[in-house]
Amino acid sequence: MGANGVQEVNGNSTSNIDNGKSLSSTAPWCPPINIDNINPKVLECQYAVRGEIVAHAERLQQKLLQDPSSLPFDELIYCNIGNPQSLGQQPITFFREVAALCDHPGLLHKKEIQTVFSSDAIKRAESIVSSIPGRATGAYSHSKGVKALRTIIAEGIQNRDGYSADPEDIFLTDGASPGVHMMIRLMLRNKKDGIMCPIPQYPLYSASIALHDGTLVPYYLDESKGWGLEVSELKSRLEAAVADGINVRALVVINPGNPTGQVLSEENQQKIVQFCKDENLVLLADEVYQENVYADNKKFSSFKKIARSMGYTERDFSLVSFHSISKGFYGECGRRGGYMEVTGFDSDVKNQIYKMASVSLCSNLSGQVMMSLVMNPPKDGDESYELYSSERNAILSSLGRRAKMLAEALNKLERVSCNEAEGAMYLFPRIELPEGAMKAAQAAGMVPDTFYCKRLLDATGIVVVPGSGFRQVPGTWHFRITILPPEEKMPTIIAKLTSFHESFMQEFQG
Amino acid sequence: MGANGVQEVNGNSTSNIDNGKSLSSTAPWCPPINIDNINPKVLECQYAVRGEIVAHAERLQQKLLQDPSSLPFDELIYCNIGNPQSLGQQPITFFREVAALCDHPGLLHKKEIQTVFSSDAIKRAESIVSSIPGRATGAYSHSKGVKALRTIIAEGIQNRDGYSADPEDIFLTDGASPGVHMMIRLMLRNKKDGIMCPIPQYPLYSASIALHDGTLVPYYLDESKGWGLEVSELKSRLEAAVADGINVRALVVINPGNPTGQVLSEENQQKIVQFCKDENLVLLADEVYQENVYADNKKFSSFKKIARSMGYTERDFSLVSFHSISKGFYGECGRRGGYMEVTGFDSDVKNQIYKMASVSLCSNLSGQVMMSLVMNPPKDGDESYELYSSERNAILSSLGRRAKMLAEALNKLERVSCNEAEGAMYLFPRIELPEGAMKAAQAAGMVPDTFYCKRLLDATGIVVVPGSGFRQVPGTWHFRITILPPEEKMPTIIAKLTSFHESFMQEFQG
């Protein structure tokens, strides 16, 4: 028996006890890594957007494949995740033309492509490919991303905000998530370090904080004020955390809100910036829904623009802004493209971020290219401009109509109230579950809103995420539903949702 | 002053002391996150492949751009990283044709493409796109990757090994690195948990172990035996670690070796498998160079094949095999595609891996598609087969010639000895640095092999990585150089390297 076996006698190691088992001829093999001896931080981490309800939906999908008549519905409708193209949204033609040409630059030399691709897509692809060292779209790029693409993105930020942006502050990432993980890893030393997050929140933040062994310091959005973000709430929650000995390092703000859909006013944003400045917190601005604003009286302003307009610069304010190609009107989730703009950090800290990025070499090039297109779309006069604008406007206006349609329907339901989605891609209705439903959930050993969502899924095939997956005011129950199903399907979905809800209430209010 | 300010009085928080500074009107602003208060695990993590030498090279590149005559060379030659296309290697045409069509499936309906794309590329793209739910190549996939692509990859593994592979065991990742990080995160609970790694090693492993707060348990490859891996060495290092109270959880084997280039014999692999079985360790098999074998008397066998041939199954042996689209003859580094095949873990542990994958949603689709092409290339009879084979063979045979050419040249240098590269993409020559060079390095405050590499870079523009970045037997000095520069450039590079080395020796042996 080997060294671990020897140690097993001392019995001071799970893996070596397993080892003992595995070596005994009678006992069944126990794998060295099992649920009782893995990293507890992994166990602690939760991500409901692809959690138990979604797993159950996948089982139902299999069942439906084997026997289409086995369930009370003929298709699953995945409203659990902001994944527009999975529900039939078509990609933006110009973006895909450029992507294809960059993926196969050999095409650029063939004149046949003139008939297949728009002239500005060809021109754009040629300029991108020639800006990549050696025209090598298959090579690792600089760990931050291709310099020329970061430059285009910085110009896009500058055009958006009216304030300068530096390509050296841009880190291109595989979607926004890896950037969030990198910043959280950088800032969290131990459980005494905290990051303030909105409740309800997008579970990427709670998951990442759990994985990196820090403390999530919650602040609550005010549902009664359209999920408003009050600085007084920030102050009192910070004070409470500090009293508990937590070093609060950063504030996460998701604007437009996920799962809550609110769009912050500039005045509100100014107060948030001032709060971070006064408390010397890093502001982590999740701005991936910046192009998803539907409320007529609201518009998106980046926190960078707000901070700069208040006179705060990279020399006196720490701000990280996250963006992505997954949302907006393009919804290129599967390409995994994104960036973070890191301002107000010393160069030696930026070098540490660069080092972390380097350990994974670089983000994928097609995501990098797509991010540059999002920040520099066709302009008036370009051959693709008309098609691009019509595709863009059709998607955004339809999303606005769907958001309104669905919110109205939800508000008609008994014991359900729902704030409108001013932006983003979700509604987060509140349900007052009847006592009977609470008891039934308890009997089923389920969280009440999970119980409701599972019943909804079993009855209709509609997949939504329980509010408990985003955290919520204790004792309140919600679910998150995307506004992404095709507009023509909305009436059917609403009808299914409504009749399920009525029968659910009937069953449990009796 | 806010809550943090209040706490600052207690002075028990760096960030709040910073806060105090930032609030005082006279003192300069100190950012909340600075080099003295970031996560120490990040500081500890090192990744020399893109470390100080490469940073210096980038500065020189800028200098060269501003004034081409400012340096003793007219171009940087990046031999620091396995990035074939950055040095002019052309992509495999079939792979790029399919990639382009999957990126823009709209093309599949246009008949003009018949003249631009090969018929089997069109057929393959159509079959891939139609196997993706909703033909949505822009949608998030299942967190493990598109099921149909995992099925193709599993079939490829089965064809390679002659043993069955299960698509449910395949996790598609953005290159091999994220899979390695996921497994290391899963297994490491604290500093008392250890993972055995070869020395020299690819620094991804030491970086990931540092970031996840575990202990790297080194075992040494025997340079005098062609970087041989002796099981007796594994045993004694394991015993020593266990005696130190380390719970050793896994063994990392890189085959073919990086940076060392050895290809393990089947007999050697059997002993390694038996060692892991006896000690109940997870075997982490880094097999990303499986198609890079140049020695006539060597061939690659996967550890899965070896373990199965010994009668070990998923019910009694824990094995993770990592593969990537970045290496081989395709070298599609920038697309970030890879997979890990996870066998011999309980389903509840696999569910935890799935959850970790879900937190980042999915790997990028074009990387997923490319990985499926690598595992299922054109077959004899397909229109593209001839071109594919000629491209493949030209690249692999040239790599073999370059490996031999460069090793011979290095062995001619005074006080330099170099094992041949049986596989992979690197040579790892040993230099016996003269006393004078050691003193000069010390005076410059540099590690001796870093001093040598910096001198080489300043004199020739050739970028290599100091052996200390991979760890090495204390007191020995090496550097890693890729075999990737174009074959026609090799003589020039060898000449530059040789004349630099001679003058370096002259300077410091005097």
- Counting copies of identical and different chains, the oligomeric state is homodimer
Helix content of chain A: 40-55%
The unreliable regions of chain A are 1-24
How many helices of chain A? The count is 18
| CATH homology superfamily name of the largest domain in chain A | Type I PLP-dependent aspartate aminotransferase-like (Major domain)
**Biggest interchain interface, per-side counts:** A-B, 128 and 127 residues
Beta strand count of chain A: 14
Query: In percent terms, what proportion of residues of chain A is strand?
Result: 5-15%
Main sheet attributes: strand count, strand direction, barrel closure of chain A:
7 strands, mixed
Q: Based on CA inertia axes, which overall geometry of chain A fits?
A: globular
**From the helix content, strand content and strand pairing of chain A, which structural class follows?**
alpha/beta
Strand order of the largest sheet of chain A: 2-8-7-6-5-3-4
Do you know the CATH architecture of the largest domain in chain A? 3-Layer(aba) Sandwich
Q: Fill in the CATH topology of the largest domain in chain A.
A: Aspartate Aminotransferase, domain 2
Mean pLDDT over the residues of chain A: 93
